[in-house]
Write a structure and sequence with these properties.
The protein is an alpha+beta fold. The chain folds into two domains: 238 residues, Beta-lactamase, CATH 3.40.710; 97 residues, D-Ala-D-Ala carboxypeptidase, C-terminal domain (Peptidoglycan synthesis regulatory factor (PBP3), Domain 2), CATH 2.60.410.10. It contains nine helices and 18 strands. The strands form five sheets. The chain has a seven-stranded mixed β-sheet with strand order 1-15-17-18-13-12-16, with no helix packed on it. The protein has a five-stranded antiparallel β-sheet with strand order 3-2-10-9-8, with helices on both faces. Strands 4-5 form a two-stranded antiparallel sheet. A hairpin with a 5-residue loop joins strand 12 and strand 13. Helix 3 packs across helix 4 and helix 4 packs across helix 5. The longest helix has 18 residues. The radius of gyration is 26 Å and the shape is elongated. The termini are close together.
Length: 383
């Protein structure tokens, strides 16, 4: 067998633009991620502890979405409005304005949380699911640990001020990723600009979404604002434009205007200074490899995951993929058998390594065919 290497180059389509290495975002802490590649494009103290304020409501929604997905909850189910939930609607907090002793559907409560940022809706949903808000907060923290939010603890469902309700912008980014990947059909609700609730015993109430980026022409479709006097303004945001999704999280913006402008600046930086390159798609044929003594001369191989890489704008010529294997590969070959390594190189540095698996089975030829092929190989080098 001979060590074989197949090299793929990526065409450089755009002229180089200078990446702003000195980008400064006016927030205490911030992070920017390219969603498909998972790569971090900017960070500023991303593991500094913050009070997540209403960004907490992303996890409140996730708990409900997970239960709906598993069949343990429905959108039509109705939850009783306790005095605790009702009092939040009269205490000056952002509210859905629920009525005590009313029954409200899960769908209305979720939209009241996502669009109207209703703290009262959070408590009603938490109590309906877990019995008490305290028990629900335990569920939230458990889910956070499960998905890798290692520096987060939730003490309530709404994010109202509590020293035991803390996180980081990196963890909020991880939570946002989970939401978008696992619940795309409900993530659509995060871009709705208003929600009208036809409440029992009162006039319909229409409230607008507090996310300022939804009203800018930048492709924003989420996610959640936050504010606490102790933390100032925060925002988890996402844009989807030209086939790319970016996620940004910032906290400690001094003003509402800073939150809007600086978040836009961060997302625009990601779009204009970096390219997203598709390397391979999950379960799609990547290339073919030579086979020895098989009923087929080649075998198709694939990766079991999507592979994307984010690189500086105009630098695609520095990116290449190497397929390395000992070939020709002797049959028989099993379907899904690991046959080769796919190595991604950027500017001479290894930035990723993946398994290439057989797309199909390749059976061995019979003994007479093997003898003939062996003779041809010895004489002509033909496999």
């Amino acid at each position: 067998m001979i060590k074989k290497i197949i090299i793929f180059f990526f065409v450089n389509l755009l002229l180089a633009q200078s990446s702003n290495a000195n980008l400064e975002i006016k927030a205490r802490t911030a992070i920017l991620q390219d969603f498909l590649s998972g790569e971090i494009l900017y960070e500023k103290e991303p593991d500094r502890s913050i009070y997540p304020a209403s960004m907490t409501k992303i996890m409140t929604s996730i708990i409900a979405f997970d239960l709906i997905k598993s069949g343990d909850l429905t959108l039509e189910e109705k939850f009783f409005i306790s005095e605790k939930a009702w009092r939040l609607s009269t205490a000056g907090y952002s509210s859905m304005f629920v009525m005590i002793n009313d029954e409200v559907s899960v769908e209305d409560l979720l939209k009241g949380i996502i669009v109207a940022s209703g703290n009262d809706a959070c408590v009603a949903l938490a109590e309906g699911i877990a019995g008490t808000e305290e028990e629900f907060a335990i569920m939230m923290t458990s889910k956070a640990k499960e998905i890798g939010m290692n520096n987060t603890n939730f003490a309530n469902s709404s994010g109202i001020n509590d020293p035991d309700n803390y996180s980081t912008v990196r963890d909020i980014m991880i939570m946002s990723n989970y939401l978008i990947k696992n619940h795309p059909e409900y993530y659509e609700w995060f871009k709705e600009k208003e929600f009208t609730w036809d409440r029992t015993g009162g006039d319909p109430i229409t409230q607008g979404n507090r996310n300022p980026l939804l009203y800018k022409n930048i492709g924003a479709d989420g996610i959640k604002t936050g504010y606490l006097a102790v933390e100032r303004y925060s925002l988890a945001s996402s844009i989807f434009k030209k086939g790319r999704r970016l996620i940004a999280v910032g906290s400690g913006f001094e003003t509402k205007n800073d939150r809007s402008r600086q978040s836009s600046k961060l997302l625009t930086y990601g779009l204009t200074n970096f390219d997203l390159v598709e390397i391979s798609k999950e379960n799609k044929v990547f290339t073919t490899l030579d086979v020895w003594l098989g009923k087929e001369k080649t075998v198709k191989v694939y990766t079991k995951e999507d592979i994307y890489k984010t690189i500086k704008k105009g630098q695609k010529k520095k990116l290449k993929a190497k397929v390395i294997y000992d070939g020709p590969i002797e049959a028989p070959i099993r379907k899904d058998q690991s046959l080769a390594k796919l190595k991604i190189i950027y500017d001479q540095d290894l930035i990723g390594e993946y398994e290439l698996l057989a797309s199909s089975e390749v059976k061995k030829v019979n003994i007479f065919s093997r003898l003939l092929k062996s003779l041809n190989y010895l004489i002509w080098g033909d496999v």
